[in-house]
Design a protein that fits this description.
- The complex is a heterodimer of chains A (538) and B (454).
- Chain A is mainly α.
- In chain A, 56% of the residues lie in helices and 5% in strands.
- Chain A has 27 helices and ten strands.
- In chain A, the strands form five sheets. Chain A has a two-stranded antiparallel ribbon. A two-stranded antiparallel ribbon of chain A has the order 3-10.
- In chain A, helix 11 crosses helix 14.
- The two termini of chain A are 31 Å apart.
- Chain B is of the alpha/beta class.
- Chain B has twelve helices and 15 strands.
- The chains are: A mainly alpha (538), B alpha/beta (454).
- At the A-B interface, helix 2, helix 5, helix 8 and helix 9 of A face strand 5, strand 6, strand 9, helix 6 and helix 7 of B.
């Protein structure tokens, strides 16, 4: 990239950031220089998935607090945020509830435990079960101290109560409430490598892989591979990565990543006023919008394994009847999603034509070009926009007299120098989407007022969202930003590529491999999970 | 006969009070407090003073100063439009106005974090914010930790979307950066937290249960201690906090013998259900009433002396159907002119505050009521709905903290640090707290005009 262009790009953003910077990443920078956080919690979803994997479906799992998305993702949140006192109690209550359900249900306990006790204090049966459960729960074999501790707990209780299952119940409660279950530990091997890093142990790597690709703990196959140290060898690692990617669980795992990245939790809560349009389900429409985007992503990444950048220019999408109504497309029968291609003259292209983006960035009754522009900056370009300063009236001037377009009313943002620094970076992008209303439906005019869909991205003009899509597909920031987000999500660590040269190099390397693969996310997943940055810690 | 003797004769040791909790009739064993008072009703029989409680009650998006701040100062102030719902408890209410948050400013609708820490907000990255230090409620909780089974209680009604990212936008109480004390949003869970240990065991199984729980906890602590070796300071701190949580549970189990209250019946199942989600009505007011009663019980049974009660999250995004379409935060920005819908919402919040005040007032304690022995700060995350801001920060004080806080007056400042108010209330519990906050927010004194000097 020519130096001049780089300067032009960084200056306005720099001015915007300086205006409103809080004390600036102090917490994260501190942890980056002092070593990465080694301890992170399982996210609530991972926690549930692990319990389901170990004990089977149909468990009633008590509430656990969701981690706030500090750092953008549940995984980064889980590595930053400490467990509160109440949270500790929740884990204990949850462990107790799970242990009770599993071990008082006759059918389930025989399946899970796998042996029939001869007496109340049946050491061999208890011992075998605790070994197996311990390995699954702690994601590594128990050492002899641990085995003893939990076995003693089980057998002493069994004796006191004259009840084998009560003994196991107490031991299971203790196991599931132990920090070794709740937290993921990534210390690395003792040997320091020349580059100043430590390679993750096989068990740690198995865990990291499984949490990233399947959003759950490592299965027996992966744990066995770790036992044989197969993951230390690049070919072995690659083999297991491919096995994980081939499973339907990988689709679910990646769905979780994109749902968090594109903030689908807000989309899911979108509802529709009954009188506006005969959609089948007023309350479920948000989930339907989310599903369209998820299917499109899944198709690109797993089915077609094609260039990710097409997702900004494509006319392909998946619609069901309700979505087709919103897009005024040919009505598709039923609630099932089918793949369709929008007509050539459709104003929608790719992800930015989806209702999930258009409605997800709107208020219930009106659009917000500022929020749409901000979403694109932050989510696609990794350029965060700080919040407005305090004691400032951020409301638009009221509509009075002659009909003004939203563009004209937003002029206020850009006339005031204080506001302009940041708003010039986002409003011209968001305003281009004004022909899509707050529900993502197309409109020629805003009431009586004609709509101008032209915009500008860092000085480069475009005539419509279609053209913006083409610009984004060609913008080098987009693939780099995706890699950055993937890496942060995968490791639970906010990438410090702006301050730290290791991270900078890791990101550059990943992005370069992404490019060489033809920008295929499936290839990027392999590249990421076999990279040094993923297999090592500092 | 003196009033206290009459008062005392009503409270037999085993007297049961018939009440209604969440719509179902319950029988509550009266707290020991009533029965063990000395003749004057102001202290325990052994001479220890009645406990004073500290609480924070939170609503979102601020007030309209022209309809909130009373025109008169001192005891002769008159109720204003947005305070009308609180008229029935006016003599227990002090209005504090004219103070500013020591706030550099960003981001908007996060004044709660500044108010609770008297320090700037900490940015984890450019869009995620948390508290820089432990909040004032936890400063009190730490000092009083040995006195009660629970250090503190955090209750929330609205569990919906937060306005921005980071713990500062979800919760008011923090132990430190990225270490929030999350609210409990389920009545059943609050109940279990308060009474679970007591209610669960019958006489026979109790000892066995305690022993078993202790061994489980021992196993967990051993595991945590092993993990702790060789970790960096940040990780160690987080594991340490987890360990502290375990120790706190241990303490509650071993305290069982000193139980003060018999447990009431648990709340009805339909209050447990799905989260409040977007709509505050119809379940919100019912949940609020039940939570208020549970909190009143918890305080009167001396299960804790410190609480945070978040009616709605900072920058609240609830929708209130009876007032109008749209999420509250959006209405605050979009409603033109005088914003009658916003005012109606603020009054709804004040009605919900009244519910708590009345629940506390209904419990006799000493010469007065439980409310008298509380010092509760009711405040918000910004000054006004439209512009947010941090000047002339809206604060109410309920209760008089056992005579240490002035009640029933309007105190108006001249731009000084608003955080003096929570500091005064915190110290009124007896906690020392020699200093509070940092930087330009650093305080060593509370608000003298609010303190009686008792």
């Amino acid at each position: 990239m020519p130096v001049v262009l780089a300067l032009t790009l960084t200056l306005p953003l720099g001015a915007c950031r300086q205006l409103n910077r809080p004390d600036g990443n102090a917490a994260t920078r501190a942890s980056a220089s002092g070593g990465e956080p080694v301890v992170r919690r399982l996210t609530t979803k991972q926690y549930r998935n692990v319990l389901t994997d170990i004990f089977g479906e149909g468990l009633v799992l008590p509430t656990l607090d969701e981690e706030p998305a500090t750092g953008g993702f549940s995984t980064t949140g889980a590595s930053q945020v400490a467990t509160s006192f109440q949270g500790v109690e929740q884990y204990l209550t949850a462990a107790d509830a799970v242990a009770r359900q599993v071990l008082t249900d006759e059918a389930r306990r025989y399946t899970v435990v796998g042996c029939v006790p001869g007496v109340a204090v049946d050491r061999p049966c208890a011992s075998r079960f605790i070994d197996r459960l311990g390995r699954a729960a702690f994601r590594r074999p128990l050492d002899s101290d641990e085995r003893q501790r939990f076995l003693d707990l089980a057998l002493h209780t069994a004796q006191r109560r004259n009840d084998f299952w009560a003994g196991l119940r107490v031991a299971v409660t203790a196991l599931l409430a132990s920090p070794s279950f709740i937290y993921v530990i990534e210390r690395g091997r003792p040997e320091l490598e020349p580059n100043g890093r430590r390679r993750l142990t096989s068990y740690e790597l198995a865990t990291r892989l499984s949490l990233f690709l399947w959003n759950t703990g490592p299965d027996e196959v992966l744990l066995d591979a770790a036992a044989r140290d197969e993951l230390a060898d690049p070919a072995g690692l690659r083999r297991h990565v491919l096995r994980l990617l081939a499973s339907p669980r990988a689709k679910l795992g990646l769905r979780n990543f994109f749902a968090e990245l594109y903030r689908m939790d807000a989309v899911e809560m979108i509802r529709r006023e009954k009188d506006k349009m005969p959609v089948t389900s007023v309350r479920a429409i948000g989930r339907t919008m989310k599903e369209e985007t998820m299917l499109v992503l899944e198709h690109n990444v797993f089915t077609e394994r094609e260039d990710f950048r097409k997702l900004f220019t494509t006319r392909d999408t998946f619609l069901n009847r309700d979505m087709a109504l919103i897009y005024q497309a040919k009505v598709v029968d039923g609630g099932m999603f089918t793949k369709i291609m929008l007509p050539e003259d459709s104003p929608r292209r790719g992800l930015l034509g989806h209702a999930s983006f258009l409605a997800g960035t709107s208020a219930p009754d009106k659009t917000s070009p500022t929020v749409r522009g901000k979403w694109i900056r932050e989510t696609l370009l990794c350029e965060p926009i700080p919040a407005p300063p305090p004691n400032v009236d951020t409301n638009l001037p009221p509509i009075e007299g002659e009909h003004k377009s939203l563009r004209e009313r937003l002029e206020e943002h850009r006339l005031d120098f204080g506001c302009n620094k940041c708003h010039q970076l986002i409003d011209p992008i968001g305003l281009s989407f004004e022909k899509f209303d707050h529900f993502g439906e197309y409109r020629e005019k805003d009431g009586e007022v004609p709509i101008d869909t032209s915009g500008e991205l860092d000085g480069k003009p475009f005539a419509s969202p279609v053209e913006l899509g083409q610009m984004l597909a060609a913008d080098p920031r987009v693939p780099s930003c995706l890699m950055r987000n993937l890496f942060s999500y995968a490791t639970g660590r906010i990438l410090q590529d702006k301050h730290d040269r290791h991270d900078q190099r890791a990101l550059a390397e990943l992005t370069s491999r992404f490019e060489r693969s033809g920008y295929r996310v499936f290839a990027a997943l392999q590249a990421l999970t076999t990279s040094e940055a993923f297999t090592h810690v500092r | 006969m003196s009033g206290s003797t009459r008062h005392r004769s009503r409270l037999g040791r085993r007297q049961l009070l018939r009440g209604v909790l969440g719509g179902i009739p319950i029988a509550i064993g009266l707290p020991r407090l009533g029965a063990m008072l000395d003749d004057h009703g102001e202290a325990y029989a052994d001479g220890k003073p009645l406990p004073r409680r500290f609480g924070v009650w939170a609503f979102g998006n601020g007030v309209h100063l022209d309809r909130w701040v009373p025109k008169q100062t001192g005891p002769a102030w008159q109720i204003t439009d947005e305070l009308t719902p609180l008229a029935p408890i006016k003599q227990h209410l002090t209005v504090v106005s004219g103070f500013d948050l020591p706030y550099d400013g960003r981001p908007h609708a996060s004044g709660n974090t500044v108010l609770m820490t008297s320090a700037q907000i900490l940015g984890v990255d450019d869009v995620t914010y948390t508290a820089r230090r432990a909040s004032i409620d936890q400063l009190v909780a730490r000092e009083l930790a040995a006195e009660t089974p629970l250090r503190s209680l955090e209750i929330g009604i609205d569990d919906g979307e937060a306005h921005e990212r980071g713990t500062a936008f979800h919760w008011w109480s923090h132990n430190g950066p990225n270490s929030p004390n999350r609210c409990i949003y389920s009545c059943r869970e609050v109940f279990n937290r308060l009474f679970g240990d007591i209610a669960a065991a019958d006489a026979g199984g109790a000892a066995l249960l305690v022993r078993e729980r202790q061994s489980v906890l021992d196993a967990i602590v051993t595991d945590a201690q092993r993990l702790n070796r060789g970790l960096g300071s940040g990780d160690r701190a987080r594991l340490e906090q987890h360990l502290e949580g375990i120790r706190a549970i241990e303490k509650r189990i071993t305290r069982r013998g000193a139980v003060v209250c018999a447990a009431p019946s648990p709340p009805a199942d339909d209050l447990v259900g799905p989260s409040l989600g977007v709509d505050y009505e119809p379940r919100g007011p019912l949940v609020n009433r039940t939570m208020a009663e549970l909190l009143a019980l918890a305080l009167s049974c001396d299960l804790t002396r410190v609480f945070t009660y978040q009616l709605v999250k900072p920058g609240s995004r609830v929708a209130i159907a009876s007032i109008g379409f749209g999420r509250y935060h959006d209405i605050t920005h979009n409603e033109p002119g005088d914003q009658p819908k916003c005012t109606a919402t603020i009054k709804l919040f004040m009605r919900e505050l009244l519910v708590l005040a009345q629940a506390l007032k209904a419990i006799p304690e000493g010469k007065g009521t439980l409310l008298d022995n509380c010092g509760i700060l009711a405040s918000s995350d910004c000054t006004t709905p439209k512009v947010h801001g941090s000047h002339d920060f809206p604060m109410l004080v309920l209760g008089n903290a056992g005579g240490r806080i002035k009640s029933g007056v309007h105190i108006r400042g001249k731009g000084e640090n608003a955080c003096m108010v929570p500091l005064s209330l915190a110290r009124a519990t007896g906690a020392k707290i020699p200093e509070f906050g940092e930087g330009k927010g650093r305080l060593t004194q509370g608000l003298a005009a609010l303190e009686t000097g008792a």
